[in-house]
Every structure is written in C-alpha cells, then in structure tokens.
Amino acid sequence: MLTVDLKNRIKRSGPLSFSDFVESCLYDLDEGFYTKRGSAGRRGDFLTSPEVGPFFGFLIANWLDETWLKLNKPENFQVVEVGAGSGTLARAIIDAQPHCLKNGVYTMVERSQKLREEQPTSEKLVSATEIPDSPLVGAVIANELLDNLPFDLLEGDGEYWKEVCIGLMNDQFVETLMGESKESVGVPPVKGARIPVQNKAHNWVENALETIVSGSLLVIDYASTTQEMSQRPQDSWLRTFKKHSRGDNPLDNIGNQDITVEVAIDQLPNGASVSTQRDFLKNQGIDRLVEEGRHIWKEFSSVGDLKAVKARSRITEAEALLDPDGLGGFFVLEWDLPSVD
Ligand SMILES: C[S@@+](CC[C@H](N)C(=O)[O-])C[C@H]1O[C@@H](n2cnc3c(N)ncnc32)[C@H](O)[C@@H]1O
User: Fold this and answer.
1) Per residue in 263-307, pLDDT tens?
2) Is the CB–ligand 1 distance for residue 48 below 6 Å?
3) Ligand 1, atom 11: nearest CA belongs to which residue?
4) What's the pLDDT tens digit per position in 24-50?
C-alpha cells in the first residue's frame, strides 16, 4: 500500500523531499492519483480549457497553422502534445483540420497508462509515453502540465531558505524543516515565507526546447512568480483537488487527490513571450469567431441544425475561456525557435 511504502521509505532513509513525495502521490505505478483515477473533464476531477468544449482546440489549431505559415509551410510539420490526458484537445484539433497537419502526425504524450488507453488513435494521431527524441519541425504544446510536475518546498527563517521535507511523527506524515537549501532562488528568505522550487518544470521546458529544430513551444497554465508566491499563503498556490472541489492537506488522502502548484514563470528558461489566455485567444480572433457563431445560430436555429447548436456553444465556451478570474487569467508562454535573441 502506498501510504505504508512511503512510511517505510522514511523510516529507512529519513525524510523525503517534497518532490519525491508528490511524485509518489500522483504517479506511483499502482496507487498514484493519475494511475488510478485522476482526469480532467466534467466527469473527472477538474475542468480544463480543452474540456470546456471543442472551441479551445479550434483556436489552438489556428495558432498551429499560424506557426506553420511563419515557418514557410514545412511539409513535415509535427505536433507533440505533452500531458495529453485522454486526448480531448487532440481530438478537437484534428477535427478542426488544420492545414499544417495535412502530412504530419499529432503525438499525444501521456504518462498515465489509464489515460493513454482512453486516447483516440489513428494514422494521424498517435499515443506515446515520452516526447519523440528525433529533431522536431513543428510545435510542442502542453496545457496544464507544468503545474502537475513534482516540485520542492522551501521555508524562510529570516536568514536562509530551508528545505521542507516529509517526515514521520507518531506514524503520521509531518513537515520536517531541514538544513539550509543550496537552491539560489533570488527572493529574500523572510521568516515563515514559503516558496516552491520547480526544477522539473525548468528541465522539462529545456528538454522540449532542445527537441525543436524550428517551431514553437506553447505552455498554458496557472502561473505567477516566486516573489509573488513568497508573499502569499502556501495554500493559495499549492492546491489539492478531487471531484471538482478543493481537496485536503497534501499530506492526507495519499493518492486520492491531485496536488498542483502555480507555475513560477521566473524559474523557467528565458525567452518566452508571456500573455494571459484571454489576450492570447483574443489575438487568435476569438471575438470574431463568437460573432460568426451568433449569426449562424440566428440564421439556422429555427431548423434545429446541428451546425447552429455548435455555433451557439461558442458563445458560452468563450465566456469560460476568457474569464479573467478563471481560465482567461491563466498564462500562455510561447518560445519560438530558432530564437531571435
Ligand atoms: C492536469 S492534467 C491536464 C490534462 C490535459 N492537458 C488537459 O488540459 O485537460 C496533467 C496531465 O499530465 C500528465 N503528465 C504529468 N507528467 C507528465 C509527463 N512527464 N509526461 C507526460 N504526461 C505527464 C498527467 O498524467 C495528467 O494526465
């Protein structure tokens, strides 16, 4: 049992780093949250932009075509989506029939076997466990992946940042403050302040950028900065979820809840252009497409046309995708390669 295994590891080798703890809670091969049940969607645990409806995928397909045009329409353009879940975004993008994928393949990279088994596959749409290591002309995209990569925790004592690990007291998991951290975080260690250290997210972006020969990396997530998080209570940026509600303390309910963190943009590799999802989608012409949807609905609703119903749903989907206090307030980071700086 996962809880017992974790306790035995701590008894054998001492406190676990927070990232090792999160790694087991989310991805343990038998009992991790994403191994057993965790998923996006109305019937899942949290609602992401692709799960709002197909309109988000349609807009990302437009962005993919724009990227392809900027590269002078390469024939071998490929798309790799990482953290693809059960393939909802992939399906919407393929349905939108972007020109860039006329010859290319869309690869859905997903760590959870259970979710990979739910993915739709075809000649154009393939499932994988890792980013293919061959050089890529095209785009890598990741929606709400980085917030789910294991991270460490530090606490300030007024002089130093100290690592927060997970130990045991009376056979219960407890936070254990370790010695001075070697991480250089560039934020003053105010007494009692907490920050996440997101080396896995940094390395993931670095690795994705190394794979792209020419094209773009698009990352969409809830995000802020290390400085900002150091001034806010930990439970406002380190959150747990299950069944569309906030979950329990991360040390409880092991393997039965999602553990996520706001992405510290300053901890990622430099060179990204940063915008909010709201601004990004407005640049992709969402307002015009919603207006077009309104016209189609007016014209065809009386005949109960499916096209009209789909067009009308653009209006409600756009509201959710643009909401500045919700998905519209997420951040979109885009790295273009070869980079111009
Ligand atoms: C919050 S879900 C987002 C799912 C989907 N992108 C969406 O927006 O609905 C994060 C997903 O990333 C997957 N994941 C985490 N680490 C991964 C990795 N290193 N490679 C591939 N998938 C990963 C998880 O299993 C999970 O399905």
Assistant:
1) 999 999 999 999 999 999 999 999 999 999 999 888 887 776 788
2) yes
3) 83
4) 999 999 999 999 877 777 777 779 999
> Residue 176 has which token pair?
């254990």
Dihedral angle sign, alpha carbons of residues 110, 114, 119, 124: positive
CA of 43 to the centre of ligand 1 (A): 17
Please tell me what DSSP assigns to residue 40: B
* Residue in 293, 283, 151, 173 with CA at minimum distance from that of residue 229: 151
DSSP state of 159: S
Any residues with CB less than 8 A from the CB of 16 and at least 6 apart, and which? Answer: 6, 9, 10, 165, 166, 167
**Cβ of 220 less than 6 Å from ligand 1:** no
Tell the residue nearest (CA) to atom 12 of ligand 1: 83
Query: Which amino acid is it at 156?
Result: G
Length of the chain counted residue by residue: 341
The burial class, CB within 10 Å (0-12 / 13-18 / 19+), for 44 is buried
Exposed, middle or buried: residue 151 (CB in 10 Å: 0-12, 13-18, 19+)? buried
Terminal C-alpha separation, the chain: 50
Place of tokens 């990232």: 19
Whole-structure pTM value: 0.96
> E strand or H helix at 172, and its extent?
strand 172-180
Place of tokens 């995928």: 57
Which residue's CA is the nearest one to ligand 1's atom 15?
83
Ligand 1 atom with the shortest distance to the CA of 27: 25
Q: Is 180's pLDDT higher than 60?
A: yes
Answer whether 259 contacts ligand 1 (Cβ < 6 A): no
- Structure-token pair, residue 51: 């799960």
For a pocket test of ligand 1, which of 111, 131, 263 has the largest count of ligand atoms closer than 8 A to its C-beta? 111
Within 10 angstroms of residue 176's Cβ, the number of other Cβ atoms is 16
Residue type, 126: V
Tokens 């949290």 sit on residue: 46
Mutation test residue for ligand 1: of 59, 110, 115, 118, the one with most atoms within 8 Å of CB: 110
